[in-house]
């Protein structure tokens, strides 16, 4: 598969997607969103990629937001469609992907960029990263899930302040408020993401798929997360990974999960 706006490679069981429009600070235009959709689906379906790392190219930005030049002239209907399509194609897809997704935030993560990082299962950041939802400074509000996912991560009061002030926070503050899990230098960012990915890959990826579903269920309206957990817990007992994991423990050896 060849892409114009992103780079995709797979190595040692880790799929890396790099958003690659550095001259536009990796802003998300329509084509980039479509390519990301295709790449995430393809990596999720591949037996090679067990974990996905998402980052931005260049030293300046992860993603500096949705591409403002594409929506500046939109009508009310166009605006609604933009948000709905983007959420469906990319942001909800990433959140609900069965393959773990780690966002490696290597610089500005603003607007749609922070929303994309927040859709990932968790985030690590480089110490130069700056994060914020500046939409109200443009006369619009976050439309790719930011008003929902930011309060889930940092709490309502902090989210309200960030949205209303349209301000940016640095990596250390982002870590302090739970927006990112780890902060490191830019040089060490991908190695850190890969180290975490390798740790994840030692475990049962089937069980992890179930765990992602169960954790996400906590944030879905009308869904009882405890019920989802019970179902997913039960499903594990029918997997080869469960047999291998428990047998290996009892035989005092390391599990070799078939991933089924
Ligand atoms: N949409 C479209 N283009 C964008 C963009 C976005 N969200 N963010 C940056 N760019 C473009 C700039 O227009 C500029 O293009 P040009 O060289 O053709 O003029 C290029 O990327 C570099 O950005 P620039 O503003 O010159 O870099 P900077 O270092 O001075 O400032 C930012 C960096 C991130 C502070 C600034 O680019 C910015 O505020 N971007 C918009 C952030 C935003 O509001 N995002 C939410 C969108 S809903």
Defining traits:
four-stranded mixed sheet; six-stranded mixed sheet; alpha/beta; 260 residues; 2-enoyl-CoA Hydratase, Chain A, domain 1; binds coenzyme A
Ligands present:
coenzyme A
- Sheet-strand content, in percent, reads 15-25%
Strands of the widest sheet, in order across it, are 1-2-3-5-7-10
Number of H- or I-type helical stretches: 11
Estimated helix fraction: 40-55%
Per CATH, which architecture of the largest domain? Alpha-Beta Complex
Q: List the helices and strands in order.
A: EEHEEHHEEHEEHHEHEHHHH
- The count of strands amounts to 10
Which spans have pLDDT < 50 for at least 5 consecutive residues? Answer: none
- Note the gap between the termini: 26 Å
- What is the CATH superfamily label of the largest domain? 2-enoyl-CoA Hydratase, Chain A, domain 1
Kindly report the average pLDDT value: 97
- Number of domains in the coordinates? 2
- SSE-based structural type: alpha/beta
State the name of the first-level CATH class of the largest domain.
Answer: Alpha Beta
State Rg: 19 Å
Major sheet description: 6 strands, mixed
Determine the CATH topology of the largest domain.
2-enoyl-CoA Hydratase, Chain A, domain 1
């Amino acid at each position: 598969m060849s892409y114009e706006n992103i780079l995709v490679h797979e190595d040692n069981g880790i799929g890396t997607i790099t958003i690659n429009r550095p001259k536009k600070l990796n802003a998300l235009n329509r084509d980039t969103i479509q390519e990301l959709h295709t790449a995430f689906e393809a990596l999720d379906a591949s037996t090679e990629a067990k974990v996905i790392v998402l980052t931005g190219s260049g030293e300046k930005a992860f993603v500096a937001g949705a591409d403002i030049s594409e929506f500046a002239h939109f009508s009310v209907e166009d605006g609604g469609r933009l948000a709905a399509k983007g959420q469906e194609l990319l942001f909800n897809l990433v959140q609900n992907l069965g393959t773990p997704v780690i966002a490696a935030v290597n610089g500005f993560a603003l607007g749609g960029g922070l929303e994309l990082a927040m859709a990932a299962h968790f985030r690590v950041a480089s110490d130069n990263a700056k994060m914020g939802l500046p939409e109200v400074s443009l006369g619009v509000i976050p439309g790719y899930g930011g008003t929902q996912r930011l309060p889930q991560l940092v709490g309502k009061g902090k989210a309200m302040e960030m949205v209303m002030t349209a301000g940016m926070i640095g990596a250390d503050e982002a870590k302090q408020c739970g927006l990112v899990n780890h902060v490191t230098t830019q040089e060490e960012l991908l190695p850190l993401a890969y180290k975490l990915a390798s740790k994840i890959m030692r475990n049962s990826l089937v069980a992890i798929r179930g765990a992602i579903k169960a954790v996400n269920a906590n944030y879905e309206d009308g869904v009882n997360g405890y019920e989802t957990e019970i179902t997913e817990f039960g499903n594990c007992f029918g997997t080869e990974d469960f047999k291998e994991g428990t047998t290996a423990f009892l035989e005092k050896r390391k599990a070799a999960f078939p991933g089924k």
